[in-house]
Write a structure and sequence with these properties.
The protein is α+β, with helices and mostly antiparallel strands. The protein is built from 19 helices and 52 strands. The chain folds into six domains: 236 residues, Glycosidases (TIM Barrel), CATH 3.20.20.80; 131 residues, no CATH class; 121 residues, Immunoglobulin-like (Sandwich); 115 residues, Immunoglobulin-like (Sandwich); 122 residues, Sandwich (Immunoglobulin-like), CATH 2.60.40; 114 residues, Sandwich (Immunoglobulin-like), CATH 2.60.40. The strands form twelve sheets. The protein has an eight-stranded mixed barrel with strand order 5-6-8-9-10-11-12-13, surrounded by four helices. Helix 6 links the parallel strand 9 and strand 10. Helix 3 crosses helix 4 and helix 5 runs parallel beside helix 6. 47% of the residues are buried.
Length: 976
């Protein structure tokens, strides 16, 4: 049992026995510590149910049934809403013990009933008979030893041996095990979930069954409660009044007090009041010596434990313990490997199963849905029934002063199975009874109100059943089965359709049926609808023991209203409540079934394509959202990933997606979740700006109830960053020169971001002053460059990346730049502004180029026959732009003085110079031919052998001394 392992003796790792045993002196251990089989983790409190419920459970799977529920008020906060998964489960009725006062007359609505044993509702299969403990022969340890059988003849089992089969019990019995002691309960609440099957299987194997309860009470009140639990479990397991009921009293903290004997006697008194008069104690020798618990039943009914694993010495020990007067000895916890084994000295053979004078069992207490009756069936055999030939089944309202609800006189039913077990009890062979009560009047009211209905089987000699009777009171039962199944819940833009079935015992007297939509998130009712029930033969077949199961079907359609729409938009959990009520408005007295809440907040999406085709950004994928039912407008929104701002939105085209429905069948409208959105890049300014800025994009899929995409909405933000265009670029300036009076530039510029541009511009830029000199839009037709497309295939629009542009030099700003010798630069730009070339753009600055040059040549510099000087040659320079005045100056390099100058009125054309310097401004008109008249100054300089020099000057002013550009030819000495 609980502390059996405390009785082991060890020394040097081997088992040994004190030598004192041989002299009749044995050091016995005490029962101490927590129970080995006390409240195992796997065990749960056993609950009983009717045979009809058990039968219905198997068939209910085919009906798709679910069960269990809590009644709640719609307008109050929901406290509980238990729900099982799809499939059938059965409701359990909780047994309650009722005490009452004896009277001498029969039962009436005001009568009180004598304090007597109450029996917890015990259920077996429909064809199974009651299986009380069977009488068995005694097999002693000595007999076992001489016949090579087990040294034990008694085993005790608990929740630690949950699955011993009937065949295994039969094998134990064949080895000489006659007695099985089953742990039923502990303290005030724990019960062995396997006890019923353990008892029935051991009995079926022909073994005598006793029961034990692990004691933890510290007060008389607790002792009463523990005895009541023990008795209820014994009834639930089909054990008769003659069962040996054992108190397992061990040395645990709760039992170590002087008054344990007094409280143990209260425990026995309570058991006796409940019909169990056959008592025994299990304990340890030291504990018994200290607290004398064996005195409550006598040593012959006391079972002590002390473990020895070397059985060769057990004969002496056995004799010693038996000589002390105890009724049984538990000597091992290793019988068969892990079971507690004992030797009976007469406690079990003399007292177990030989005290029966009365036994009863309630086998059915259920509603019959076929004919709307309450069926009460079982058996009752009692020696006191002799001479009492009239039988009544009486029903009481236990929660209404034990008011009698109905009675019915019944005939005896043959029960040979009971007679086989209780052959010594009077009337066992005809102890059966079967009554059917119409579900009306006060019985119907009591069931509808959830009262405990108590059944009494009465044997009486009187015809009216009110005198000279012997009763057996069974535990009160609440008929509160409440089973339902939601077969369809369909949400659409029109509203919600629900259908299913709901059967409840307490639907009695509640003729109105409502289906209610409830917002389980906000705890508020959305709407309700009164419905008409429909026939459901399948439910009746599965739940024949539940009232109205044959007419339990319902169907309701709820039109979309503001409250329902708001709940769906907020992603709230919608709960369906099926209600039976006695009030037309759906309130009043009611019984509810709360189906599992359905949360409408699923939101899944997938982006399948995000690409640019022919100036369109195409976005495709799917977006499945519960909120789409009330937010039917599907939008795709694009965001600039760098700025976080929206750059574009488009109302999507919705497409069918059966594949999404297959993957997400529980998301509303999953079959219509596909989307296609096209963005015209050229006409979408924000998108153009983001692309031209080289920014990446993000997409948001949205359902909205607003045509503009705002209002109530459900968004899915795709996490992937998208760059649907190439950020690559390549370029080349193939020519940048002056041609006559034009500055010309040509080349190509390919850039993936150009997909967002409306136009291409070429800009002439003064890199010295950082000023634009001019710009020119390049026509699309003039941009064709198939060669570039071939070599740069990965760059969008590379085939239209070429440009040719010319800028007139007579433009004042350009002329000034050339005049100043500034560095000039070509800028190629793609822009979304095709009017001025501004707006959003991406551009490339080619390297700046210097246009400073000054080239000249002196063809002739000689003295004429008349003493004059002839000078001819050419002077070409880009800096001559803006300097219209052309002078040739005769200069004395020796004295450092100008001798004379002469304006070139007409420039001499020099095609040879133009050919040699085609990119120099005005090189064609760069020639000059001047004759300086002879003068005394000239003659003196020549005669004195001075170095004479020619300077060619272009000036912006007529006086020739201001803004100019010169070319100084090499000095020479001239001879006459």
């Amino acid at each position: 049992m609980e502390a059996k392992k405390r009785f082991k003796l060890y020394k040097s790792g081997k088992l040994w026995c004190c030598v004192a045993v041989a002299f009749g002196v044995v050091a016995l251990g005490t029962v101490n510590g927590q129970a080995d089989d006390s409240t195992p983790a796997a065990a749960t409190t056993v609950q009983t149910s009717t045979a009809a419920v058990q039968a219905a459970t198997a068939s209910a799977d085919n009906a798709g049934a679910t069960s269990n529920q809590t009644t709640a008020t719609i307008n109050d906060p929901v406290t509980t809403s238990d729900q099982t998964s799809a499939g059938a489960t059965t409701s359990s009725s909780t047994a309650n013990t009722v005490t009452s006062t004896p009277v001498s007359t029969g039962l009436t609505s005001t009568n009180q009933v004598a304090d007597s044993a109450t029996t917890t509702l015990n259920v077996k299969s429909l064809n199974a008979a009651a299986a009380p403990a069977a009488a068995s022969a005694v097999t002693t340890a000595a007999y076992a030893a001489t016949n090579n059988l087990s040294t034990a003849d008694t085993l005790d089992i608990s929740a630690y041996q949950p699955n011993i089969s009937e065949e295994t019990f039969r094998q134990y019995h064949n080895q000489g095990i006659n007695n099985v002691v089953v742990k039923l309960s502990e303290s005030t609440s724990w019960t062995n979930a396997y006890a019923q099957q353990q008892v029935s299987r051991a009995q079926a194997a022909g073994m005598a069954v006793s029961a034990y309860h692990f004691v933890r009470f510290t007060t008389a009140a607790q002792a009463q409660q523990e005895a009541q639990l023990f008795a209820r479990m014994a009834r639930a397991c089909g054990l008769g009044n003659d069962t040996l009921m054992i108190a397992d009293v061990e040395s645990v903290p709760q039992t170590q007090y002087a008054g344990i004997v007094n409280n143990l006697n209260v425990f026995w008194q309570t058991l006796s009041s409940l019909g169990f008069n056959n008592h025994g104690v299990y304990t340890g020798l030291a504990y018994d010596r200290q607290y004398n618990v064996s005195s409550t039943v006598g040593k012959a009914r006391t079972w002590v434990a002390m473990y020895y694993y070397d059985y060769s010495a057990n004969a002496a020990r056995c004799n010693y313990i038996q000589s002390m007067g105890y009724g049984a000895w538990q000597y091992t916890d290793r019988w068969g490997g892990s079971i507690d084994g004992s030797i009976d000295f007469g406690m079990f053979s003399n007292y177990a199963g030989h005290q029966a004078t009365s036994a009863a069992n309630l086998e059915n207490f259920n509603i019959n849905a076929n004919n709307n009756t309450l069926n009460v069936a079982g058996w009752f055999a009692d020696n006191n029934n002799e001479g009492k030939n009239n039988r009544y089944v009486i029903l009481l309202d236990q929660d209404n002063g034990n008011r009698e609800l109905a009675r019915q006189q019944v005939s005896a039913v043959s029960r040979p199975d009971v007679a086989n077990v209780y052959s010594d009890v009077y009337g066992a062979g005809t102890s059966g009874f079967n009554a059917n009560f119409a579900l009306n009047g006060t019985l119907a009211d009591a069931i509808a109100n959830g009262h405990r209905i108590q059944a009494i089987i009465r044997y009486t000699s009187s015809n009216d059943g009110n005198s000279d009777y012997n009763d057996h009171w069974f535990d009160g039962v609440v008929l509160n089965q409440n089973v339902a199944n939601m077969e369809k819940l369909q949400v659409s833009q029109a509203g919600i359709h629900v259908s299913g079935w709901h059967a409840a015992d307490q639907a009695l007297d509640r003729q109105y049926h409502y289906v209610i939509l409830f917002d389980a998130t906000t705890k508020k009712e959305i709407t309700r609808q009164r419905v008409t029930l429909t026939n459901r033969g399948d439910v009746e077949r599965a739940y024949n023991n539940v009232y109205n199961s044959g007419k339990s079907g319902f169907s309701a359609d709820f039109v979309m209203n503001d409250a329902l729409r708001a709940a769906l938009q907020n992603g709230d959990s919608i709960q369906v409540i099926s209600r039976y009520t006695d009030d037309k408005n759906g309130d009043g007295n009611r019984v509810d079934y709360w189906f599992t809440p359905q949360a409408y907040n699923q939101n899944q999406a997938y982006l399948e394509d995000f690409s640019i085709y022919n100036g369109q950004l195409r976005v495709t994928g799917w977006h499945a959202s519960d909120q789409s039912v009330v937010e039917p407008n599907q939008w795709i929104i694009l965001l600039d990933n760098q700025t976080g701002k929206e750059v574009a939105r488009a109302k999507a085209i919705t497409t069918k997606r059966n594949d999404v429905l297959a993957a997400y069948p529980n998301i509303l409208n999953a079959d219509n979740s596909g989307f296609v959105a096209n963005f015209d890049i050229a006409n979408t300014s924000g998108l153009r700006a983001a692309i031209l800025a080289g920014h990446s994009l993000k997409a948001v899929a949205r359902y909205s109830d607003d045509n503009g995409g705002e209002g109530h909405r459900s968004d899915y933000w795709f996490s992937a960053v998208q760059t649907p265009y190439s950020t690559q670029s390549a370029q080349e300036l193939e020519s940048f020169t002056i041609n006559g009076n034009q500055i010309e530039a040509s080349g190509w510029y390919a850039d993936g971001r150009s997909v967002a541009a409306k136009a291409m511009y070429v800009i002439l830029y003064d890199a010295t002053t950082n000023r634009e000199l001019g710009r020119q839009q390049i026509a699309t037709a003039d941009r064709e460059r198939p060669d570039i497309a071939s070599s740069n295939s990965s760059i969008a629009n590379a085939g239209v990346s070429g440009f040719k542009a010319s800028f007139a030099i007579n433009n004042s700003s350009i002329m000034q730049a050339l005049k100043n010798g500034d560095r000039l630069q070509v800028v190629a730009r793609y822009t979304d502004d095709d009017q001025s070339g501004e707006g959003n753009y991406v551009q490339h600055f080619f390297d700046a180029q210097s246009f400073q040059n000054n080239n000249a040549y002196l063809d002739a510099f000689r003295v004429n026959s008349d003493g004059g000087i002839q000078v001819s040659g050419w002077h070409a320079s880009n800096q001559t732009a803006g300097r219209p005045y052309h002078y040739v100056i005769f200069y004395d390099a020796t004295s450092g003085r100008e001798i004379t100058r002469q304006r070139v009125v007409e420039n001499v054309q020099r095609p040879d110079v133009q050919k040699a310097y085609p990119s120099v401004y005005n090189s064609l008109n760069s020639g000059f031919n001047i004759n300086f008249a002879s003068s005394a100054t000239i003659q003196r300089a020549i005669s004195e052998g001075h170095n004479l020099q020619v300077i060619d000057r272009y000036s912006a002013t007529k006086d020739d001394n201001g803004d100019y550009v010169d070319y100084w030819f090499a000095p020479r000495q001239l001879a006459q």
